[in-house]
UniProtKB/TrEMBL annotation:
Pfam families: TPR_19 (PF14559), TPR_2 (PF07719). Keywords: Repeat, TPR repeat. This is Tetratricopeptide repeat protein. SUPFAM superfamilies: TPR-like (SSF48452). InterPro entries: TPR-like_helical_dom_sf, TPR_2, TPR_rpt. TPR repeats lie at residues 77-110.
Amino acid sequence: MPEQTPETHVIDFRAAEQLLEARDPRGAVKLLDSVIAAHPENTAARLLRARAFFAAAQLRPAELEFQIVLEREPDNAFAHFALARTLQRANRPDEALRHFRLAAALDPRPDYVEAARFDAP
């Protein structure tokens, strides 16, 4: 296997983005594993891997990755929204609602506000 360099990690990250877009989340996860092993602090790579786990219906790994992102970026509205969707899919609606509401409070996009159900009890 060729030596991994910062350049190959960038290439792998971009390729993982394309794989996720092409609906190959498992392929994206494989590429991102080496990127994150070399750069565990890379929040963008973790967020992309979380999205790939979600797309592959690997909810627990997705949840853990989204939580790591939110530990580092508590004001990341997208990460709150995506974590909420993950929790919703895992049939944990109360936890999901909390993150939907945080996402909407941080970024009042219509889809975030709708999911937050501020008008519901």
